[in-house]
Records
---
Amino acid sequence: MPTIKLKVFNLRSMILIKKNTVWVRFSLFLFCTIHLIAQETSFQFEQGKDIQIKGVEKHLYKTTLHKGELLQLHLLQKNVDLQIIAFSPNNDTLQRFDAPNGKNGLEIVELPIKKSGIYHFEVSPLLPKRFTGATRQKYIDNIDGSYLVSKYKIYSQKEHIQLQNRRKVRKDSVISWIKNTSIPLQSVKATTGLTDLMGLKPILKDVQVVGLGETSHGSKEIFQMKHRMLEFLVKEMGFTIFAIEASHIGCEPINNYVLHGKGTSREALTAQGFWIWNTEEVLEMIEWMRNYNLSVPEHKKVKFIGIDTQIVALDLAYERVDNFVEKTNDNGLLKVKVDSLFHKLKNKPDRKDMSSQRQELYTVLSYLIVNEIKLIHQTSKQEYDQIITDLRKIIQGVEVADRGYKKTFDFNVRDEYMAQTVIDVLQREKPGVKMVLWAHNTHISKNIETKVNGKTRPLGSILKEYITEKYYAIGFSTNQGSFRAMNYNAKEKRYDKNAAFTLPPAKEGSLDWYFAQGNKDIFFIDFVKSLLSKTITTFLGQERKAYRGGASWSLDYGILPAFDISPGKNFDGMIFIKETSHSILTPAGEKEIEKRVQNNTH
């Protein structure tokens, strides 16, 4: 039998207490903590004070509420992922609240009261369904966090109605702004004309890098729209660099194809190593780039550059560095066996700790730098510079892959290196060169607080520091449809297939829902050049749910991939596509999926 400990606090439950035969009425808030026998804990609740919660503890709050009232409750999570369950006076489950924001951030409860009575609110750590057996118990044992009530308010029926009216005025104002300000777009498909995009010219006229985001790594119409934006920016605004969230080394064959026609587009696309880009939509864009380059003079040709620094598709770099060392290390100054090192890196190294590989790579880099004069004399300045670039990308890839090493940083190392690659590409080109940057919404975000894989300081925020207003971030939004991703099988604890995940119509109040009220299938909307009222400025600064998926998701999660974003803080403008569908893999993309399933990777 569990023991129950009660603490009494100032709130709303009406309780009669008999004292010296006199009945006294108090306005009270009861806080109950239910513990298993081995987990008894006693603490006092105070506004603004951390409340510790561990393991499977459940904190039960109850209060008397009246029909027509509105309860607002904000709990600030600290190193614990909470769920809040509301129970009716009949002890029926009314609603479960769990924002997909991990172990930190606000859990928000807003409950309109339809029946008077005593309501219960159970606060407990969320236990993911995918964890079972020993894994589940280990997860429970590691739960050790806290939370505080940052807001608790009960609106009377009159106050509730007034609040609803104020919200309706604000909502109508925002929807009217979206309808009147957004620029309708006729199609997501390239080569269908550019007239409808001409309104973007004055907005982007002084911009050097346009970031194009995406709600997932597998959305067909978003990929197509980014192709169309590339066509517009190239033909109408003089952009000549296309950069993408893919291997810098691995994209060399694509660049050689679009510039010089070397090889085939399908072979080049497969060489970059990411299944997410091995789609018919991206292939169509590559073919367009090749055909465009055939029709224009050299200074207008568009380059295809990868800017990612993961330990993927580095074979060309391994080969060049290995050959360079073999032909120049004639005196044996370099003791590292480069061919053996690279063999280990290509064959699924243990990413928990790659310190030994990192140290060997640093030794190779030191050798190249210390012996620069000799090595250039033996080869050439151009070849030497290429080898330094190759080795830098290999080192960056290993540092990004090394989980132990990444934990030593409080920012996103991968995004830092992607930003450095963007700036390096710009500096190597002629002054004033313009770049189209294709990456996920989270990467292109200009908001330094945006988290990518749990770490802040995304690529877009770093570019804002480097080139300020010359960077313009365009996020994407969709109301419904589907997207492609690797499926994580929670029961088997592995990636078992590539699947199409369904997105139902966005929930009312979400950012995607607001955009859908604009009654336009596709539109662009600017947040920077537009004259914004206080209501709109507030709206753009607030966090709202928006669909967001990555390269993987799970049919077992039981929740939709919708996460909080502040549109005005994250982006300078956005493109909304009312309905999207999943991307179409090429045959080579399908084969890559088969390999990833075998290797249990995403």
---
Amino acid sequence: MSRPLIAADVDELVRALVEPGDHVHLAGTPSRPNALTYALCRVFGAGGHLTVSTTAVHSSAHALALSGVADKVIAGFAGDTYPSPRPNPLYAELHEGRPFTFEAWSLLSYVQRLIAGAQGAPYAVTGSLAGTDLAEGKPGVLHRVPDPGRPGEEVTLLAPLRPDVTLVHGVAADEDGNIALVPPLGEGAWAAYAARRGVVASVEKIVGREELRRMNDRVVIPGQRVLGLTEAPLGAHPQALRTGRLAGVDGYLDDYAFLDEIVASCHGEERGQDWYRTWVTGPGSHAEYVRRLGAGRRAALRVPEPAPAAAGDDYAAETAAWAEVHRCERAAVAQAAPAAAAPPVAPAAEPAGPAGCAPATRQERLIVLGARAVAEQVRAHGYDTLLAGIGTSHMAAWLAADLLRSGGHEVKVVAELGMYGFRPEGGDTFLFSLAHAQGSEMLAGIPEILGGMVAANPRALGVLAAAEIDESGTINTSRGADGRWLTGSGGANDIASSTDCVVIAPSSRRRYVTEVGYRTSPGHRIRAVVSDFGRFERPESGPGFRLATWLPDPATPLADGPGELARQAAHTVATRTSWSAAVDGVTAEKPVTEEELTALRALDPDGRFR
């Protein structure tokens, strides 16, 4: 077996091993090969005519759109993820094929296609997508066929996903190309095996064979699949990389200031081109990119080594470690380039709040009411696992878990990229922060979480968000009423297709609609929908939802009299949604308590969700 090419830098590696017109896969493990992605853009530019597959297009992957290197992208998401999902103007005309043709999938169905490709299977079987618009427009790739074991039923088959080359960023590799990674693993090594020609890899450090064999339990991709590699310190930046200190390599944190800078630039006058010039074409190489970050910023992003725990004091040691991680995150923001965007200003507060607390904002009220609904579902139905979509939905799930725990009821919080049983310590509100991995009970990948812990687990409860939701519970997170692209499914379709769910969505007549403009996720498993003024629940029989609880506007005292609560609740539904939900039997939702607000603000000390 020939040894892989060892190149001087990422640009040389791309020139040698990637060809115009290739199908290039950007592996999400869950850190991305961002240095290699920039190199693709520099080397090929608009002449690349690539097909690119990746779990999601966000942050540094916006370079694909800004460079024109990709003719087609296959993914489950296109937009921004930090601090919460939102549309990016680069993709407003995605439905028209600009800036590239986009083939949208759900996260699990996408990975199932990779697994089929890796195993040489003719098809993948999925329980996702059915009954939604994600299943449409995929001739030759998605097939609905009669289920041989269930007469009258259908099963969904997916063609395997087989890129020409897969780009990966790892912690370390030896000269034979064996690549070590540290969990969680996101999509894992499936794309490495699915690639027709093989893997093109960057790593933090190339080490000798003997050194790598001492950590062979961390080798995820075998050298037999690797075409070439190069060293690229900080090759996943601005994303985090967990290293476990393998081969003495320091891990690093998500660079939130850099992520803010990308978003601000894409929403600015030049629609991202100023960021692209500064950080992709301007440096001309990865070495210059790292130099431009500056020594102070690089040092602030470094994950601190955990202090040795005192005997019998594990909790204190863990708390101190989280506090140090959060301190480093703040230091990284302080070291950021001047162009970095400041955190959003908190909206005006409500006129009154619990004693001892600043009053709750509308968004905080939504999160608290959502947390109550989730906690009630857990108590009533015995769910043991919470999987939340990103945004106010994950904050509601986190708060619900905290409130349940304080009442002696334990429930496991999981994240779709591979974290199980984690507590978001340290004030880091980003759902996919790898800092949360430190306190997780188990670290795995997308198939284990979305498959094993959700689709195959009858005790899982999903907590989702919605850009639009109709009275059947069907969710749209893909296209606005004007046709503009929103973000896509991510793992939401997989969750809603397979398990019971609670939806957390702020009230608006444009959000609570009579019929969604695009069916991203099915509604048949939605048990409750929570707004900032109350909770809708499915009746025991019949279609749609009824308003079960209503929280009076704190600025408008509730009038006395029989039926007054139902009358005002009905008025709120009519003016703040486009639903016709019944209100008979509605009960008053108690105001947000000091305990709830204090717990929420402990999770969100910087006010990202105010």
---
Amino acid sequence: MTQEDDVPYPLDAAAVRSWCGLALEALGRERERIDAINVYPVADGDTGTNLYLTLESAARAVEAAFDGHASAGTAPGLADAIGAMAHGALIGARGNSGTIVAQLLRGMTEVLAAADDGTDGGADALRRSLRRAAAATYEAVAHPVEGTVLTVATAAADAAERTAGGTGGAAEVAHAAHEGARSALRATPGQLAVLGRAGVVDAGGCGLVALLGALADALGGKVSATPVAVRADAPLPEAAGCEAAARTAAEGCGDPDGPAFEVIYLLEADDAAVARLRTRLDGLGDSLVVVGGDGLWNVHVHVDDAGAAVEAGIDAGRPYRIRITHFGGAGRAKEPAMAARAVVSVVPGDGLAGLCAQAGATPVSVRPGEPPASGELVQAIRQAHAREVMLLPNDPELRHTAAAAAEQARTEGVRVALIPTRAAVQGLAALAVHEPGRSFDEDVVAMTSAAGATRYAELALAERQSWTMAGVCQAGDVLGLIDGDVAVIGSDLTRTATTVLDRMLSAGGELVTLVLGADAPDSLAERLERHVRERHLAVDTVVYEGGQHAAPLLIGVE
């Protein structure tokens, strides 16, 4: 698409793909300006960044859908593309506004997927999808507040409905929705007192205006690249104006009595469990937004007791990709105090995430087969609020991703050391010797040495017949991997684990670390501890619960 194009495009899979690309470009341009005016619900200056990361995840999902169809020799339909966009936004949603936008896209999908037969995929379908999207955002928020992105979404739907009977097709509807959203955005300072005091419009609403502007461009066949007005008194501020907005926003906008933590996680649970979870979390804090459906949800809440919020998720189902961010200071503050040094650690399970958080690290909880993107690691580094950061990838496959994240963070003024941890147990060993009081270089050397001195193993179940370095395995066999290679094939988890331990300790060792997955037998830890005690003198054993999505057993020998 070029700026000279002026022929409207149909609302189809290609339009959704174009929409994603243009939205990502728009939010990339607007990110810093939106961050600068972020005063509600918390003045933490990250709404633009969160929206960008949410759309980045959505765009990756759409591209994956197109690649999958290309490999199969088929073309995706509207339902495939918009469904991928909504799912990508759901699993990658960041912050309050990102979570709400994910639900908005889901609401649109509910209507547009049904219109994929080509008989109702134009103007009328888009009008109805925008109305459903606005309603869905209100359903997701525990306590809706006007003057926010919710109000802007409703105004967009209202304006879209007023085009009924027009002849401009979906492009006309999208343009009207964009203009309606812009008008509503300008009115937000008069609807929400905190915005009026800061002299800015709603940051989440800014992001939605950018998103709808990209949709109008994708369907209209032209790229406007019009900046979104972020100040109540100056429609198009330059960078200096954004900095002034940030300073204004910081004065009197933070709530010193508000919750101290933001907790976000993906959750596999049924509808009834999620309904109970909403009630439980609503009693723990505020800014509660739960979006999703069909068994997969994104949960966002601000609380003082982050552990209780995670435990509520565990009781409801299977939480993963757990992210806990401290707002800094006593209660909320615009700029959290910068720590001298912090650790960011990628971990495969909620138990390990909690363990790392207790040790003072910022955990990035991941699910097997769903590695984090570099942008997610960069965001975790930012949220650590430290001048110096140790990054622990804990997976050899994340080496390049972590390196890219570290390089990006360095351009933002953060000193980042990439500790070459290849497994979660190496990350635990490195974290155990972390000492912020010594020099950065000395800490890097100590953590790297501790990780390098830790041999690691993992027990997993074979999914299919395969050739390995230990021979041929069959589906269901227990595989004992030592330092990344299959070394033992067995039929019983405990017996295979003892064989792996004996092989690792044959070269010596002083400490054995066992990390149990949620599906590990109850007696496994006790039997392995007894085996080590009886067969290997002067070797200590520590046991941790890895929780859901960790392997059945992780082993470290130091």
---
Amino acid sequence: MRKGDWIAGISVAGLMLPEAVAYAGIAGLAPQRAIFAAIAGCLAYCAIGQSRFAIVTPTSSSAAILAATFAAMPGPAGDKAFLVTVMVALVGVLFLAASALRLGNLAGFVSRPVLRGFAFGLAITIILRQLPTLTGISVPAKDIFHLTLWLLSAFPQWHLPSVLVGTSALLALLVLRRAPFLPGAFLVLVAGIAVSGLLHLSDHGVALVGPIPILPQWPSFSSGQWRDLVALLPYSLPLVLILFAESWGTIRSLSLRQGDSVTANRELGALGVANLASALVQGMPVGAGFSAGSASEAAGARTRATAVVAALGLVGLIVFAADLVARLPQPVLAAVVIAALTHALDPLPLLRLWQLKRDFYIALAAAVGVMTLGVLNGVVFAIALSLAALLRRLASPYVARLGRLGQGHDFVDIARHPDATPIAHISIWRPGQPLFFANADAMLSSIAASVREELDIRAVIVSLEESFDLDSTALDALLEFDASLKIAGKHVQYARVHDRARDLIDAAAPELVARCDVSVDDAVSAVGFVLSRSAKAQPAVQEKPKSAPSGEMGPEQMPSADD
């Protein structure tokens, strides 16, 4: 263990405590559940995970999703507490199953623009929900729009001491960001406890955290509750996907920045073990949050031992400073949460999408979806939005017509390269997306329609370089395309056919494999040879062999292998 690990671990511990208490409040659970989850998550991840910066604790998104789940659960608080524990264990099992099945690319189903929009909308939602604590008033509104209106209308009732304490803590946190080598959250935490004791803030109506039990409280449960366990699965699946997308995004970005190597499947397993450990201590769902990971990096973490130091530091705070933590003002906790989420309010990633004219509206829709539909429905909406964007892009029937670039062997899109020239009597096409059930018929039909309009075209080459494999629908569309052009008297050749697609074609239509080439240039040579043989054989079948047909092409007109 290096010196940097000690410094980084202590700094992160100062951030973990207020965040844990605040996230437990968001989820509607006792503070110790988030604290125990943070301790267990860090220790379990350190044993298996690869990232030296990852701090596996409760996150803002998991707390918000858990809050929506908690609100939808029937029964008394004791039964709900038991179901939350089962849900955390179920999340761990799903992570381990995904790791065993090598589903490390699972996070890819939530695209980065959707994840950025989701994080942006979630940050706004959580920050707005912290404002009642910061202002010292109770707001009955459930959705953020009514909450905002209620806060504005209740401005005269804002509790001034709470507002002063909260805003002072928030300003201090933002200023301390200019000195990343200092444990800003820990310093603000200590200052808040000191001010609370010196000024007797509780006597002025400022809410305090209060005593935090240091032993897990095992909930009781009724036998009828077992029927509700099946209902947890629809909530657990999106939670796993969002937790992994958030965790993998944090781990991967920090690792790439420092040149470290991490693998998605191993991280899935590490997160699974961390959540099972959290369930054993009656904790919450845990993941690698961006704020804690960034704090670890900024503080100079050197190895995974940083997470161990942070967990032990959190244990020390709870065991030896429990009485002091009880005096911590709740507006300070709200300020810590708000400061931790301000990074997600950075508009630059969204503005970059606007400038690139790619996926901006998808990110915006994800943000609006979270704010209007709620966190849980917002997660489902974000996933559906990612899949819809993927299908829309794949189903777009863009087909490029290719021409030879100069005198070489390269063939490029004629529309993008004016210096590329088409091959005489040969039409060369390249579908812009992989052929699959949703786009194969449209793409191949558009090629066939274009070929039929050009009477001088005698052969067609289709480059399948984008299709590493074919499904049965795409295969049928390809065979129908081939048969229709054969009836029209056109020779069809295929280029850049991947091995898996070639194997499928061989199983369905062996005669078609002979017309599959490795490159477009090879396909052009093969077509030139076929057309040359056809031209030489043509006079032998004419009724008047002494006079060549007017439409016959001489050998000098035929495309050579170099065209």
